[in-house]
Amino acid sequence: MGIFRRTRTNDTNGTETAAVNTPIKVAVVYYSSTGTIAEIGKHIAQCAKEAGAEVRLLKAAELAPQDAIDSNAAWAANAAATAGIPEATPADIEWADAVIFGSPTRFGNIASQLKQFIDTLGGLWGQGKLADKVYSGFTSSATTHGGQESTLLALYNSFHHFGGIVVAPGYTDPAKFADGNPYGTSHVDAQGDNPVAQTTREAARVQAERVVRITTALKTGLAAA
Question: Which one of 66, 170, 175, 213 is most buried, by most CB atoms within 10 A?
Fold first, then answer.
């Protein structure tokens, strides 16, 4: 059950060869209102692709009414700029070997838009199709102590219920000591005054590459087991 089923063929000598010949598949699924998470998600997706993965960049559906979006210039601008990014579906999660979720902090938790999408995955969960995948997360907040760690830890609760394998970046690279968050990439946007800069981009690269590397090792190893 799960994505790491093994495919074997027997040669004339009776030896078995594990068929793990394709790149791993990574879905980057995010919710973003004013664009910070969208930018980090795009960078993570690009880094995962450069690390050799097949990648889908996807957004959670917006739940807010249009008048609320229009009342905030940054929100409206991001909605227009990301209109061409597909909305995530459960089929995308079933497709993926690894999923990296992104959400801004909302009262120390993930945004309702991303939570609503996660709640649609019950059917896959019931079939065991969320198990044995790699999961990771990224976030942003307006202030330095704005709930970034609690947001990621709350997100990771769902992964434990899935039977997923949480791959956090930890302090596995010097870039993470600059970013300072072992749970995932995080950014302080200071109400839009602090754009996504090199420190966050380097942390995102470390996370993306680690997810690709660990997922590849798991998929290869389990296929050969």
Answer: 175
- Tens of pLDDT, residue by residue over 155-199, are 999 999 999 999 999 999 999 999 899 999 999 999 888 999 999
Residue 18 has pLDDT above 80, yes or no: no
Q: Alpha-carbon distance 36 to 119, whole Å?
A: 24
Residue type at position 54: E
Three-state SS for 102?
strand
CA dihedral for 53, 213, 224, 127, sign (positive or negative): negative
210-223 pLDDT tens trace: 999 999 999 998 78
Q: DSSP of the chain, one letter per residue?
A: --S----EEE-TTS-EEE---S--EEEEEE--SSSHHHHHHHHHHHHHHHTT-EEEEEEPPP-S-HHHHHTSHHHHHHHHHTTTSPBP-HHHHHH-SEEEEEEEEETTEE-HHHHHHHHTTHHHHHTTTTTT-EEEEEEEESSTTSSHHHHHHHHHHHHHHHT-EE---TT-SHHHHHH--TTSEEEE-GGGTS---HHHHHHHHHHHHHHHHHHHHHHHHHHH-
For 86, which DSSP code? P
